[in-house]
Amino acid sequence: MMEEEEAEESPPLSPSVIEGTEEVTPPLSVSPSTIRVTEAAQDGELLTFIIVSQKLSGTGEYHVDRTYEDFDWLQQHLFSLEDVPGIQGIIFPPLPARAQQNAPVKLVRQLGLLATGETWTPYCRALGAYLQQVAGHSLLSRTQHLETFLTSPEPPGRQKVKKGLFNRLSQAVEGIRKGRPHQGTEDVDDFFRTEREHNLSLTGLSRAAAERFLEVVQTEQKIAVACGHFAASLQLCVEAGDDPGQETFSKMCVKISEIMESMKKNVQKVAENDVTTLGLGLDLECRYQEAEKEMLFRRTCKLVELETASRNAERAKPLKKAAMDGDQKAAEKDFEQVSVVAKQEVARVQRARVAVLRQALVRWCELQILTATSSAEQWNQQLLAFRGPARGPGPSS
Amino acid sequence: MDFVPCPLCLTSLLVPPFFLFPLQTTLAMFRTKTFTVRRRFSDFLGLYEKLTEKHAPNGFIVPPPPEKSIMGMTKVKVGKEDSSSGEFVERRRAALERYLQRVVCHPSLLQDPDVREFLEKEELPRAVGTQALSGAGFLKMLNKATDAVSKMTIKMNESDVWFEEKLQEVEAADQQFRKLHGMVESLVVHRKELSLNTACFSKSVAMLGSSEDNTALSRALSQLAEVEDKMEQLHQEQASCDSFSFAELIADYIRLLGSVRGSFDHRMKAWQRWQDAQTMLQKKRESEAKLLWANKPDKLQQAKDDIAEWEAKVTQYEGDFDRVSSTVRKEVVRFEVNTHIVLQRSPRAQPLIKYWDAFLPEAKAIA
User: Fold this and answer.
1) Which secondary structure element, helix H or strand E, spans residue A11, and what is its range?
2) Chain A stretch 3-32, residues whose beta carbon is closer than 8 A to a beta carbon of chain B
3) What angle (nearest 5°) sits at the alpha carbon of residue B85, between those of residues B80 and B90?
4) Single pTM value for the model
5) Using alpha carbons only, how large is chain B's radius of gyration in Å?
6) Is A253 on the interface with B (CB under 8 A)?
């Protein structure tokens, strides 16, 4: 059956795919590619996610339960990591938006493809992908926080996150939202100039594609519902009776109702395939582009800082000159580090997203072919059954 | 009733500014001669008018023709060449063919000289008075007629419970079919929506593909856009298929049920006539009695004869109706839902598989 063919044996987004052929040696005690968010349990409004990962030592598994707050905690801690040179140049693995039961319309729209369907499965997969990306990142996976998140039986403490870098990062994000003039700053580096333009266009286009795809999926779901209603209505037409004409008619209604039911299941499966493969892929692509946009913005801010520091150093009075020069040198070093990391990250993400999309497209194709083949088979059978015994009166009045 | 093989074949032919429907008939009663005549849409409506006038009051269920469609015809007359106008003509042709088949399969109607003339005669006089069937549509007209009749205070003493039951069945069937029709229409709307959305998605994927640096991914995305384009076509076809096979047939039956209701109404009218006749008879008897008293025998006899004849005729009619209604009702119950519908359902899967199969290698080729 189709269910067995589903990607439960291999996770849809494995870090080896995402990270290319990088060797990863984190102090993490679990194997990144085995991290899975297996289910979402609901308790009133609260959603709790079960996360499973295999120990590297091969001696067993970790099962932990976490809420979205815990994920957020992890992400904030990653933003505020110290002793990571050029951290501002990192394209942070994008965390999906918060999901909740009976969410307001705005939140549902934010979640987009992840909120379609009856279950939380697509959302869980997206969360799992996020964790795998973090665990597979050479710089980010070394944090104790990740280890705690994945292995500690108690949820990580919901303490206040340290100030500092985090604040500046969030300011940068705010800056993007408010459309600060920094975005128009000319870049000193050709690579980044091109990259910024490219990223800008891809962000818009991938968002558009994801939204159109969501509309397709939603329409498929409507069709499934309509088929179901039709099947139910046909069942209501069935009546017991002596009249042979009535009997034939009733039999007909039952058969067509069955066919409509199988149509409904087919369309539902098609929609499900859409979401779990290409849907997730497009959604991740969007979030990747957004994450890169934020990184590029941070780097631009650094550039502005550098330019300001240089101007200050130039204009400084002799008394302050040394200090200003020092500042300028620090800013320069910072900016260079960020740019180095940024370049690496851009390349990493480029490899990752291409791999993600490839896998998504291939898997999408395969699943749809399976669904179509199995449906065609079923319909052929039903058609034969229909034509066979029911050789009633043909097109009469 | 035995299965009667279809003796008719209706095609369509555009002779601007009209559409003609060349009709080929091979009927046993014509001694294996095959006739081919050309008929216009208004000719079909004219035939219905004549048949209704003659036979409906006798309780026959005269099959209704397809509705006039001003929008559809205008498009065609203007010569708008698009898929929807082609579809419209095909739908009309199929509907007219089904209509004729019903007429021809009705043993009594087949005997009617107007029907013979319709099938045989080269040139028919231009049908007039077909305006009644345009505008709001046949269904609405029937609704109004039925409402009007039920508002008439005909309190009929139903002696035969069969009719009461049947009428309830017909009304229930009518409701069911209208509901089904609504469902099918909704399904068609959604499929058309899917077609549109697929087209939009295809365009956005194409744009994404052309902005993509990685050549293999770019090519794959372009291919995907093409596949989605083809899917859009498929969805469109499926939508018109559903519409064609399901919706049209259900609409046919809703109209037919309207005719059945009409026959019940005629029966009621006949009953009313009968009642009126009886009242009249009573009056005549009273006046006869008066005349007897006044001693005028010659006028008397005539009155008596008239009345007796009249009463007998009406009683005969009612019996007739019962018989006819019963027979025709049985015909209608054997609905045509069978063959046409299901056959259209399944073929869609095959082309789908072909498209996916073609796309898969492209997707895999992305490095």
Assistant:
1) none
2) none
3) 145
4) 0.77
5) 29
6) yes
